[in-house]
TrEMBL record:
Matches recorded under Gene3D superfamilies: 1.10.287.130, 6.10.340.10, Histidine kinase-like ATPase, C-terminal domain
The protein's Enzyme Commission number: 2.7.13.3
The protein, known as: histidine kinase
Domain HAMP: start-end pairs: 177-230
Catalytic reactions on record: ATP + protein L-histidine = ADP + protein N-phospho-L-histidine
SMART domains tied to this protein: HAMP (SM00304), HATPase_c (SM00387), HisKA (SM00388)
GO terms, molecular function: kinase activity
Cited Pfam families: HAMP (PF00672), HATPase_c (PF02518), HisKA (PF00512)
Lineage, highest ranks first: Bacteria, Pseudomonadati, Bacteroidota, Chitinophagia, Chitinophagales
Residues passing through the membrane, by range: 12-30, 152-176
Amino acid sequence: MTLKRRIALSWSIAYSLLFGVLMVIIYYAFYDFRRDEFRQNLKDKSMVTAHFIAKTPDFIKGVPQFLSESDDGLYKEEILIFNQDKKLLYSTVKDESVSWDANLLRELDLKNEIYVENTTPEYFGVLIKIDDQQFYILTSAEDINGRSKLRFLGYILLLTYIISTAVVWLSSYFFVRKLLRPLDQLTQQITDITAHNITEPVPEKGTNDEITVLARSFNTVMRRINDVFQSQKDFTSSAAHEIRTPLTRIAFQLENLKYQEAQPEQMGTTVANIINDVHQLSDLTRSLLLLSKFDKDNISSIYEAERIDEVVFNAYEQVFTQYPELKMDFTIVTEDAKEPVLLIKGIRSLLEIVFINLLKNAAAYAVTSQVTVTIRETDEWVEVDVCSHGPLLREEEQQRLFEPFMRGSNAQHLSGSGLGLPIVKRIIDYHKGQIRYLPAAPDQNIFRVRLPL
């Protein structure tokens, strides 16, 4: 059963039950009102008769005239008056034989007042004392008018209940379908999403109803999925493109080794090139695999406190194994007498990749084997400047510096993947930081990394 049918069925059943209960309450409320009103009429007639008996010594002679004068319109009204011995003194019944229920008189001995409603006619009895004498008065009548109104009300309520419930049962599905039409539209829009239009969000209305909240939540989930999808796509593309290059060079140089057995110097150069290609392949694979492990939206949940100076030194030690000639001048700048904390929140393995790439670029592309690292701490940021000396990048190259596979004019004669700085940029973005390239005349290349404390 579909959601629309379940809602329509539930609403129809609930309406039928609640409306039925309301009809029953209305019916029995009028039923009680009719009974109480007619009881009061019978009681008033009985009490008027009792008052007449108390004021009239020879009430037997005056009762017929009194009752005819005090006729209040009760249908088939009958009054029976008994003495204390329960003998009939007077009756308005014209028949020669008058019958009554002796149990009513005995019940009056116990209660003084009784009312019998479940018979036709209805009875009201009262026991009064006048001058040490007891009199039993039984008044009966038929509530034709009240019972007719009650039956008519029952018919009206039953007909109203049947018609209204029938209308609700027949129309509820169409109203629910109209009400849930935005949900059907959302479902169709979600169904139409493919790998080619995964970045297109479903429309969100300017309201805060549940369907809009659902659409907004779905768009948030799709953005996260798209980030993961794009990350995997970039990883696959980058890995396929860049791993192939060093592998091709390694295979080519290994082929050449077969013909260089008699030339030890060339063999040594070839082996060194192979080793460099293996290191490059290893670093690239390590970076891409680490990036593929983390989710940008939830990476902050696994942050740990790290000292930025230790991260830089660990990165330098790893670079030093490949570039032993590289020298690092390390400086911590303090603006006041306060000792810098240098603690940031992040993932050490990713942060080390940032500075490994920056230091390798300084070692590979600089004209000198000297790199200067300067750490500066502010109230909100830790800034790390990695400065090397070499040819400056052109303006158009600076704008595309962090795009995948972009290589500057100063790197055309060197091997590389063109993925180092894009990987650095992505890691910095993961840590909600910033990285900028700051060229300084005449030959200073400065990369400034800013990470939040």
